Amino acid sequence: MAKILIVDDSSTIILQLEHFLEGAGYEVVVARDGTEGIEKLEEHDNIDLVLSDINMPKMNGFEMVKEMTTKKNVKVFMLSTEGDSRMIKKAKEAGAKGYIIKPFDHDELLRIVGEATKPA
C-alpha cells in the first residue's frame, strides 16, 4: 500500500488523518511543519503522496510545496480551511496537484487519496 506524508501543525488533524488512513491500509509518516515535512520527504524515498496544511510555523505549505516539488517528483495535495479561489490558485502555482477543504468528507478523501496513489 502507498505511503502518505501528513504535514500539519494541528495534533487533532494529524491524529484524525493518521487513524483514518492507517485504517484504510496506508502507511503514514507525520511532520508538524513545512521544514520537518521536507526532512521527512528526504528521509523516506518512497513517499507516494503528501497531504499538507498551508498555515504552519517555520515554513508554510506554499513554501514547502515549492521546495518539495523541485527536489522530488511527488504529488502534494493541500488541506486547508481556506477555500477561496485565490488560495487554490496559489497552491497550484506552488506545485500542488490538488486542494481539499477542511472539514473534509472521509469517503471523498479516501477516493482522492486512492486516485492520487494509484500506479500510473
List the helices and strands and how they pair.
Blueprint: E1 3-7, H1 11-23, E2 27-31, H2 34-43, E3 49-52, H3 61-71, E4 75-80, H4 85-94, E5 98-101, H5 106-117
Parallel strand pairs: 1-2, 1-3, 3-4, 4-5
Helix pairs in contact: 2-3
Explain this structure to me?
There is one protein chain. It is built from 5 helices and 5 strands, in the order βαβαβαβαβα. By secondary structure, the protein is of the alpha/beta class.
Keywords:
120 residues, alpha/beta, 5-stranded parallel β-sheet, 5 helices
Shape: globular
Number of helices: 5
**Structural class, judged by helices and strands?**
alpha/beta
Strand content: 15-25%
Number of strands: 5
Low-confidence stretches: none
Offer a quick outline of the entry.
The chain is of the alpha/beta class.
